[in-house]
Design goal:
Number of helices: 2
CATH topology of the largest domain: 2,3-Dihydroxybiphenyl 1,2-Dioxygenase, domain 1
Strand order of the largest sheet: 1-4-3-2
Number of strands: 8
Distance between the termini: 25 Å
Shape: globular
Structural class: alpha/beta
CATH class of the largest domain: Alpha Beta
Oligomer: single chain
C-alpha cells in the first residue's frame, strides 16, 4: 500500500544570494522568513500553503540544465502577475503567458536563475 501525502511540504534548493532571494520571494509571493539557519546561511521562507528551504551557495553556477526544470505556484490572477512582473522588471520567459489546455502559466526566473511557473489553475486542472 502506498503512503498518503497531504501535498508537497517544501522545495529545497541552493541560491546565489540568500538576502536577494528572500527579498525576491517576499515581493513576488509575500513569503516571510519562517525559520533561519545562520550556521549554514539558510532559511525556510513561505506561507502556510507553500514553503521554500533555501541555502546560499555563492559559487552556484548556472542552474539551467542541471536536471531541475521549474517550480510552480498557483496564483489568483495571471494578468495581475504579468503587470507585477513588468512593473518590477522581472523578465517574462517565452514572450508571454503560455496557454495550456485548461490553464495559463507565466514563466519567470528567480535571482539565481531558477525557472518559476505562475499558473492560474491549481494542478493544471487535473483534479477537476
Amino acid at each position: 500500500m502506498a503512503l498518503k501525502t497531504a501535498g508537497i511540504d517544501h522545495v529545497n534548493f541552493q541560491v546565489k544570494n540568500l538576502a536577494v532571494s528572500i527579498e525576491f520571494w517576499n515581493e513576488l509571493l509575500g513569503f516571510e522568513v519562517l525559520e533561519e539557519f545562520p550556521e549554514v546561511n539558510g532559511a525556510i521562507i513561505g506561507t502556510k500553503e507553500a514553503k521554500l528551504a533555501i541555502y546560499e551557495n555563492a559559487d552556484l553556477e548556472d542552474v539551467q540544465g542541471q536536471g531541475f526544470s521549474h517550480i510552480g505556484f498557483c496564483i489568483d490572477d495571471i494578468n495581475e502577475a504579468k503587470v507585477f512582473c513588468q512593473q518590477n522588471d522581472i523578465p517574462i520567459l517565452y514572450d508571454d503567458a503560455v496557454a495550456w489546455p485548461t490553464s495559463k502559466s507565466l514563466y519567470i526566473q528567480d535571482p539565481s536563475g531558477y525557472e518559476v511557473e505562475l499558473s492560474d489553475t491549481w494542478g493544471g486542472g487535473l483534479d477537476d
